[in-house]
Amino acid sequence: MAESTLERIQVAVAALHAGDRPAARAHLLALWHELADDAAARCVLAHYLADAHDDPREVVRWDERALEAADGLTDDDLRRLHPALSLREFYPSLHLNLGEARRVAGDLAGARASAEQALGAARDLPEDGYGQFIRAGVRRLASRLGLAE
């Protein structure tokens, strides 16, 4: 049985979570080029490629790519990767990551804009573990930036 696209991405993400950032980055970049016609896969790949970089400018660049890719997707596009994925649940994380990356890179105005978007998008998250996790991250970012919830 052939591996699904998401399973192939998960192999690279496992290397990232195991601490092998160079190997994860190389694998994710290879998939990025291979899956150039799969917008949903490229959105997820960009999301993880941001985590595979040390340079704050590269992190911002990949987080921006992930968000740009998401803007062209539908839930059906994401569900082709995995039936549980939805834009409603993905956007808060994308905005949170971009906001934090911009904060670290010193773009506080951009970070605030992303945090505001994350705050708005997080309201649509379900009351489950994932929703609580993302909302907590959004609250931390908003607090770091002096924003009210």
What can you tell me about this protein's structure?
With 149 residues, the chain is mostly helical. The chain has two domains: 1-74, Serine Threonine Protein Phosphatase 5, Tetratricopeptide repeat (Alpha Horseshoe); 86-149. Helix content is 76%, strand content 0%. It has eight helices and no strands. Helix 2 (21-34) packs antiparallel against helix 3 (39-51), helix 4 (56-71) runs antiparallel to helix 6 (87-105) and helix 7 (108-122) packs antiparallel against helix 8. The protein starts with a helix and ends in a 5-residue tail after the last helix. The mean pLDDT is 94.
Features:
mainly alpha; 76% helix; globular; 8 helices; 149 residues; Serine Threonine Protein Phosphatase 5, Tetratricopeptide repeat
How would you describe the shape?
globular
SS summary, helix count:
8
Poorly predicted tracts of residues: none
CATH class category of the largest domain: Mainly Alpha
- The total beta strand count reads 0
Could you tell me the mean pLDDT? 94
Helix content: over 70%
Order of helices and strands: HHHHHHHH
**SSE-based structural type:** mainly alpha
End-to-end gap: 47 Å
CATH architecture of the largest domain: Alpha Horseshoe
Tally of discrete structural domains? 2
Radius of gyration: 15 Å
CATH fold naming of the largest domain: Serine Threonine Protein Phosphatase 5, Tetratricopeptide repeat
Instruction: Describe the main β-sheet briefly.
Output: none
How big a fraction of the residues is strand? under 5%
